[in-house]
Amino acid sequence: MTKLEDIGEHELLAIISQYCDRKKIGDDGAILDVNTDKKLVITTDVLVENVHFSDDTTPPHSIGYRAAAANLSDIAAMGATPIAFTVGLSLRKDVEISWIKSVYQGIQQCLQKCTTEVVGGDITKSEVNVIAITALGEVKENEVIYRHRAKVGDLILTTGLHGLSRAGLEILLYPQKYAHIDDETRKKVIFAHQYPEPRLDVIKLLKSINPYPKVTGMDSSDGLADAIIQICQKSNVGATINRRKIVIPSAIKKITNDETAWNWILYGGEDFELVLCMNEETAQYLQKRLGKNCHIIGEISASSEIQLVDPENVYPKLLLNQRKTFQHF
Protein backbone atom coordinates (compact mmCIF):
# COMPACT_ATOMS: atom_id res chain seq x y z
CA MET A 1 0.00 0.00 0.00
CA THR A 2 1.34 3.44 -0.94
CA LYS A 3 1.62 5.77 2.04
CA LEU A 4 1.80 9.55 2.26
CA GLU A 5 5.48 9.47 3.22
CA ASP A 6 6.17 7.65 -0.07
CA ILE A 7 4.84 10.39 -2.36
CA GLY A 8 5.19 13.75 -0.60
CA GLU A 9 3.06 16.88 -0.49
CA HIS A 10 2.96 17.93 -4.15
CA GLU A 11 1.92 14.53 -5.44
CA LEU A 12 -0.75 14.40 -2.74
CA LEU A 13 -2.06 17.80 -3.88
CA ALA A 14 -2.26 16.46 -7.43
CA ILE A 15 -4.36 13.53 -6.19
CA ILE A 16 -6.65 15.76 -4.10
CA SER A 17 -7.20 18.17 -6.99
CA GLN A 18 -9.17 15.44 -8.77
CA TYR A 19 -11.92 15.88 -6.16
CA CYS A 20 -12.03 19.69 -6.34
CA ASP A 21 -13.48 22.34 -8.63
CA ARG A 22 -10.58 22.64 -11.10
CA LYS A 23 -11.64 26.16 -12.11
CA LYS A 24 -11.27 27.50 -8.58
CA ILE A 25 -8.12 25.83 -7.25
CA GLY A 26 -4.46 26.43 -8.03
CA ASP A 27 -4.00 29.91 -6.56
CA ASP A 28 -3.65 31.22 -3.01
CA GLY A 29 -7.42 31.44 -2.68
CA ALA A 30 -10.66 30.62 -4.47
CA ILE A 31 -12.68 33.38 -6.14
CA LEU A 32 -16.43 32.97 -5.69
CA ASP A 33 -19.32 34.89 -7.20
CA VAL A 34 -21.25 36.72 -4.47
CA ASN A 35 -24.93 37.62 -4.52
CA THR A 36 -25.16 41.14 -3.11
CA ASP A 37 -28.79 40.64 -2.03
CA LYS A 38 -27.86 37.70 0.24
CA LYS A 39 -25.90 37.12 3.43
CA LEU A 40 -22.86 34.84 3.57
CA VAL A 41 -23.03 31.94 6.03
CA ILE A 42 -19.76 30.33 7.18
CA THR A 43 -19.47 27.24 9.37
CA THR A 44 -16.54 24.99 10.32
CA ASP A 45 -16.37 21.47 11.74
CA VAL A 46 -13.23 19.70 12.90
CA LEU A 47 -13.12 15.89 13.08
CA VAL A 48 -10.27 14.31 15.02
CA GLU A 49 -9.14 10.69 14.83
CA ASN A 50 -10.08 8.67 17.92
CA VAL A 51 -12.46 11.44 19.01
CA HIS A 52 -14.93 11.66 16.12
CA PHE A 53 -13.90 8.61 14.11
CA SER A 54 -11.81 5.46 14.31
CA ASP A 55 -11.08 2.37 12.25
CA ASP A 56 -13.52 0.45 14.46
CA THR A 57 -16.53 2.66 13.78
CA THR A 58 -16.01 4.61 10.58
CA PRO A 59 -14.53 3.57 7.22
CA PRO A 60 -12.76 6.42 5.38
CA HIS A 61 -15.54 6.90 2.83
CA SER A 62 -17.98 7.45 5.70
CA ILE A 63 -15.55 9.80 7.44
CA GLY A 64 -15.59 12.08 4.41
CA TYR A 65 -19.33 11.78 3.97
CA ARG A 66 -20.10 12.51 7.63
CA ALA A 67 -17.70 15.46 7.68
CA ALA A 68 -19.47 17.01 4.71
CA ALA A 69 -22.92 16.14 6.07
CA ALA A 70 -22.17 17.84 9.40
CA ASN A 71 -21.37 21.09 7.61
CA LEU A 72 -24.34 20.83 5.24
CA SER A 73 -26.54 20.30 8.30
CA ASP A 74 -25.25 23.52 9.83
CA ILE A 75 -25.90 25.37 6.56
CA ALA A 76 -29.45 23.99 6.47
CA ALA A 77 -29.96 24.93 10.13
CA MET A 78 -29.28 28.55 9.15
CA GLY A 79 -31.85 28.42 6.35
CA ALA A 80 -29.09 28.76 3.77
CA THR A 81 -28.05 27.15 0.50
CA PRO A 82 -24.47 25.79 0.27
CA ILE A 83 -22.16 27.33 -2.33
CA ALA A 84 -18.63 26.05 -1.60
CA PHE A 85 -16.47 23.88 0.67
CA THR A 86 -12.84 23.95 1.77
CA VAL A 87 -11.08 20.96 3.31
CA GLY A 88 -8.12 21.10 5.67
CA LEU A 89 -6.22 17.88 6.34
CA SER A 90 -3.68 17.18 9.07
CA LEU A 91 -2.32 13.71 8.34
CA ARG A 92 -0.02 11.09 9.77
CA LYS A 93 2.88 10.42 7.44
CA ASP A 94 2.06 6.71 7.42
CA VAL A 95 -1.56 7.16 6.30
CA GLU A 96 -2.36 5.20 3.15
CA ILE A 97 -3.15 7.14 -0.02
CA SER A 98 -6.15 4.90 -0.61
CA TRP A 99 -7.52 6.12 2.75
CA ILE A 100 -7.22 9.76 1.67
CA LYS A 101 -8.86 9.07 -1.70
CA SER A 102 -11.73 7.29 -0.02
CA VAL A 103 -12.28 10.22 2.36
CA TYR A 104 -12.55 12.61 -0.58
CA GLN A 105 -14.85 10.23 -2.44
CA GLY A 106 -17.15 10.30 0.60
CA ILE A 107 -17.07 14.11 0.65
CA GLN A 108 -17.78 14.17 -3.07
CA GLN A 109 -20.73 11.78 -2.75
CA CYS A 110 -22.34 13.90 -0.02
CA LEU A 111 -21.86 17.15 -1.94
CA GLN A 112 -23.57 15.70 -5.01
CA LYS A 113 -26.84 16.23 -3.13
CA CYS A 114 -26.48 19.97 -3.56
CA THR A 115 -24.15 20.42 -6.57
CA THR A 116 -21.55 22.03 -4.32
CA GLU A 117 -17.82 21.45 -4.77
CA VAL A 118 -14.56 21.68 -2.86
CA VAL A 119 -12.77 24.90 -3.86
CA GLY A 120 -9.64 24.74 -1.71
CA GLY A 121 -8.06 23.78 1.58
CA ASP A 122 -4.74 22.95 3.20
CA ILE A 123 -2.62 19.96 4.22
CA THR A 124 -0.19 19.58 7.13
CA LYS A 125 1.62 16.83 9.02
CA SER A 126 0.12 15.59 12.29
CA GLU A 127 0.38 12.86 14.91
CA VAL A 128 -3.29 11.96 14.30
CA ASN A 129 -5.53 12.41 11.27
CA VAL A 130 -7.69 15.53 11.43
CA ILE A 131 -10.26 16.80 8.93
CA ALA A 132 -11.42 20.42 9.13
CA ILE A 133 -14.15 21.44 6.72
CA THR A 134 -15.43 24.96 6.20
CA ALA A 135 -18.71 25.36 4.35
CA LEU A 136 -19.99 28.56 2.81
CA GLY A 137 -23.65 29.22 2.13
CA GLU A 138 -25.90 32.08 1.17
CA VAL A 139 -29.28 33.17 2.46
CA LYS A 140 -31.59 36.15 2.14
CA GLU A 141 -31.84 38.38 5.21
CA ASN A 142 -35.49 37.51 5.87
CA GLU A 143 -34.85 33.76 5.49
CA VAL A 144 -32.11 33.36 8.11
CA ILE A 145 -32.94 30.81 10.82
CA TYR A 146 -31.54 31.92 14.18
CA ARG A 147 -31.72 30.21 17.57
CA HIS A 148 -32.88 33.24 19.56
CA ARG A 149 -36.26 34.09 18.02
CA ALA A 150 -38.62 31.45 19.46
CA LYS A 151 -41.84 32.95 20.76
CA VAL A 152 -44.45 31.75 23.24
CA GLY A 153 -47.03 29.72 21.34
CA ASP A 154 -44.64 28.53 18.61
CA LEU A 155 -44.90 24.83 17.88
CA ILE A 156 -41.73 22.74 18.11
CA LEU A 157 -41.18 20.52 15.09
CA THR A 158 -38.49 17.94 14.47
CA THR A 159 -37.55 16.23 11.25
CA GLY A 160 -36.73 12.55 10.96
CA LEU A 161 -36.06 10.17 13.84
CA HIS A 162 -33.66 10.54 16.74
CA GLY A 163 -31.48 7.97 18.45
CA LEU A 164 -30.63 5.86 15.40
CA SER A 165 -27.11 7.23 15.06
CA ARG A 166 -26.37 6.55 18.72
CA ALA A 167 -27.73 3.03 18.32
CA GLY A 168 -25.46 2.48 15.33
CA LEU A 169 -22.43 3.72 17.23
CA GLU A 170 -23.26 1.43 20.15
CA ILE A 171 -23.34 -1.63 17.90
CA LEU A 172 -20.06 -0.62 16.23
CA LEU A 173 -18.35 -0.10 19.58
CA TYR A 174 -19.67 -3.27 21.23
CA PRO A 175 -20.33 -5.83 18.46
CA GLN A 176 -20.25 -8.85 20.79
CA LYS A 177 -22.81 -7.33 23.15
CA TYR A 178 -25.24 -6.91 20.26
CA ALA A 179 -24.36 -10.05 18.30
CA HIS A 180 -27.96 -11.24 18.63
CA ILE A 181 -29.41 -8.28 16.68
CA ASP A 182 -30.76 -9.20 13.25
CA ASP A 183 -28.82 -8.05 10.16
CA GLU A 184 -31.53 -5.70 8.86
CA THR A 185 -31.71 -3.77 12.13
CA ARG A 186 -27.93 -3.74 12.46
CA LYS A 187 -27.46 -2.36 8.94
CA LYS A 188 -30.16 0.27 9.41
CA VAL A 189 -28.70 1.85 12.54
CA ILE A 190 -25.08 1.60 11.36
CA PHE A 191 -26.06 3.31 8.10
CA ALA A 192 -27.83 6.04 10.10
CA HIS A 193 -24.59 6.65 12.01
CA GLN A 194 -22.19 6.49 9.08
CA TYR A 195 -24.32 8.21 6.41
CA PRO A 196 -26.60 10.85 7.98
CA GLU A 197 -28.84 12.89 5.71
CA PRO A 198 -28.47 16.69 6.00
CA ARG A 199 -31.97 18.20 5.79
CA LEU A 200 -31.55 20.65 2.93
CA ASP A 201 -34.90 19.40 1.62
CA VAL A 202 -36.68 21.12 4.50
CA ILE A 203 -35.09 24.45 3.60
CA LYS A 204 -36.32 24.09 0.02
CA LEU A 205 -39.83 23.51 1.35
CA LEU A 206 -39.64 26.60 3.55
CA LYS A 207 -38.47 28.70 0.60
CA SER A 208 -41.55 27.60 -1.35
CA ILE A 209 -43.82 29.33 1.19
CA ASN A 210 -44.86 32.90 0.31
CA PRO A 211 -44.33 34.97 2.33
CA TYR A 212 -41.38 33.23 3.93
CA PRO A 213 -42.39 32.17 7.47
CA LYS A 214 -40.64 33.20 10.67
CA VAL A 215 -38.68 30.16 11.82
CA THR A 216 -36.32 29.62 14.75
CA GLY A 217 -34.13 26.55 15.11
CA MET A 218 -30.91 24.58 14.82
CA ASP A 219 -29.77 21.08 13.97
CA SER A 220 -29.67 18.19 16.42
CA SER A 221 -26.01 17.24 15.98
CA ASP A 222 -25.51 17.23 19.77
CA GLY A 223 -28.87 15.63 20.50
CA LEU A 224 -32.57 16.47 20.48
CA ALA A 225 -32.56 17.68 24.08
CA ASP A 226 -29.53 19.88 23.48
CA ALA A 227 -31.22 21.61 20.53
CA ILE A 228 -34.41 22.31 22.48
CA ILE A 229 -32.46 23.58 25.49
CA GLN A 230 -30.23 25.86 23.43
CA ILE A 231 -33.16 27.37 21.51
CA CYS A 232 -35.02 28.05 24.75
CA GLN A 233 -31.99 29.54 26.48
CA LYS A 234 -31.15 31.79 23.55
CA SER A 235 -34.79 32.90 23.24
CA ASN A 236 -35.41 33.31 26.99
CA VAL A 237 -38.41 30.98 26.91
CA GLY A 238 -39.40 27.55 28.12
CA ALA A 239 -41.01 24.57 26.43
CA THR A 240 -43.45 21.75 27.02
CA ILE A 241 -42.53 18.59 25.11
CA ASN A 242 -45.15 15.88 24.65
CA ARG A 243 -43.43 12.55 25.25
CA ARG A 244 -46.15 10.77 23.25
CA LYS A 245 -45.27 12.77 20.12
CA ILE A 246 -41.62 11.66 20.09
CA VAL A 247 -41.29 8.49 18.07
CA ILE A 248 -39.15 5.62 19.35
CA PRO A 249 -37.72 4.06 16.16
CA SER A 250 -38.67 0.41 15.79
CA ALA A 251 -35.00 -0.47 15.23
CA ILE A 252 -34.10 0.92 18.66
CA LYS A 253 -36.89 -1.08 20.31
CA LYS A 254 -35.22 -4.23 18.97
CA ILE A 255 -31.85 -3.28 20.43
CA THR A 256 -32.38 -1.96 23.92
CA ASN A 257 -34.80 -1.27 26.78
CA ASP A 258 -37.13 1.69 27.14
CA GLU A 259 -34.91 3.72 29.48
CA THR A 260 -31.83 3.46 27.28
CA ALA A 261 -33.91 4.16 24.17
CA TRP A 262 -35.07 7.48 25.62
CA ASN A 263 -31.51 8.35 26.60
CA TRP A 264 -30.32 7.74 23.03
CA ILE A 265 -33.23 9.71 21.55
CA LEU A 266 -32.82 12.75 23.79
CA TYR A 267 -29.07 12.83 24.33
CA GLY A 268 -27.45 10.55 21.73
CA GLY A 269 -26.63 13.13 19.08
CA GLU A 270 -25.29 12.99 15.52
CA ASP A 271 -28.68 12.45 13.89
CA PHE A 272 -28.27 15.80 12.06
CA GLU A 273 -31.99 16.46 11.92
CA LEU A 274 -33.58 19.91 12.33
CA VAL A 275 -35.42 21.20 15.39
CA LEU A 276 -37.59 24.16 14.38
CA CYS A 277 -40.04 26.51 16.08
CA MET A 278 -42.81 28.18 14.05
CA ASN A 279 -46.48 29.07 13.95
CA GLU A 280 -49.11 26.35 13.68
CA GLU A 281 -49.90 26.98 10.00
CA THR A 282 -46.28 26.52 8.91
CA ALA A 283 -45.77 23.49 11.16
CA GLN A 284 -48.84 21.76 9.74
CA TYR A 285 -47.73 22.56 6.17
CA LEU A 286 -44.32 20.95 6.75
CA GLN A 287 -45.88 17.96 8.49
CA LYS A 288 -48.24 17.44 5.57
CA ARG A 289 -45.46 17.66 2.98
CA LEU A 290 -42.93 15.56 4.90
CA GLY A 291 -45.42 13.03 6.30
CA LYS A 292 -43.94 10.50 8.71
CA ASN A 293 -40.59 12.27 8.36
CA CYS A 294 -41.78 15.18 10.51
CA HIS A 295 -43.19 15.44 14.05
CA ILE A 296 -44.73 18.28 16.06
CA ILE A 297 -43.52 17.42 19.55
CA GLY A 298 -44.33 20.41 21.72
CA GLU A 299 -44.82 24.12 22.23
CA ILE A 300 -42.80 27.10 23.40
CA SER A 301 -44.01 28.40 26.77
CA ALA A 302 -43.51 31.47 28.95
CA SER A 303 -42.13 29.29 31.76
CA SER A 304 -38.38 29.10 32.25
CA GLU A 305 -38.63 25.31 32.51
CA ILE A 306 -38.26 22.80 29.67
CA GLN A 307 -40.61 19.98 30.57
CA LEU A 308 -41.03 16.53 29.09
CA VAL A 309 -44.61 15.55 29.92
CA ASP A 310 -46.86 12.57 29.34
CA PRO A 311 -50.51 13.55 28.83
CA GLU A 312 -51.62 10.06 29.87
CA ASN A 313 -49.60 10.30 33.11
CA VAL A 314 -47.82 7.02 32.47
CA TYR A 315 -44.43 8.61 33.11
CA PRO A 316 -43.52 11.34 35.60
CA LYS A 317 -42.85 14.84 34.33
CA LEU A 318 -39.15 15.36 33.60
CA LEU A 319 -36.98 18.40 33.04
CA LEU A 320 -34.52 18.11 30.16
CA ASN A 321 -31.00 18.11 31.56
CA GLN A 322 -28.25 19.99 29.73
CA ARG A 323 -25.58 18.24 31.78
CA LYS A 324 -26.53 14.99 30.00
CA THR A 325 -26.06 16.47 26.52
CA PHE A 326 -22.85 15.91 24.58
CA GLN A 327 -20.02 18.27 25.51
CA HIS A 328 -16.35 17.94 24.57
CA PHE A 329 -15.15 19.22 27.93
What report would you give on this structure?
35% of the residues lie in helices and 22% in strands. It contains 10 helices and 11 strands. Helix 1 packs parallel to helix 3 (97-111) and helix 4 (164-173) crosses helix 5 (183-194). The protein is an alpha+beta fold and 329 residues long. The strands form 2 sheets. It has a 7-stranded mixed sheet, sandwiched between helices. The model has no long low-confidence stretch (mean pLDDT 94).
Order of helices and strands: HEHEHEEEHHHEHEHHEHEEE
Largest sheet: 7 strands, mixed
Number of helical segments? 10
Number of strands: 11
In round numbers, the mean pLDDT is 94
Record the strand order, biggest sheet: 6-8-5-9-7-10-11
Strand content: 15-25%
Give the % helix.
25-40%
Give the assembly state of these chains.
single chain
Please compute the radius of gyration using only Cα atoms. Answer: 21 Å
Low-confidence stretches: none
Shape, principal axes of CA atoms = globular
SSE-based structural type: alpha+beta
**Termini, distance in Å?**
37 Å
In short:
This protein is α+β, with helices and mostly antiparallel strands and 329 residues long. The protein has helices spanning 4-16, 60-77, 97-111, 164-173, 183-194, 200-207, 224-235, 250-255, 258-267, 280-290, and strands at residues 39-48, 81-91, 118-125, 130-139, 155-159, 216-219, 238-242, 274-278, 294-301, 306-309, 318-319.
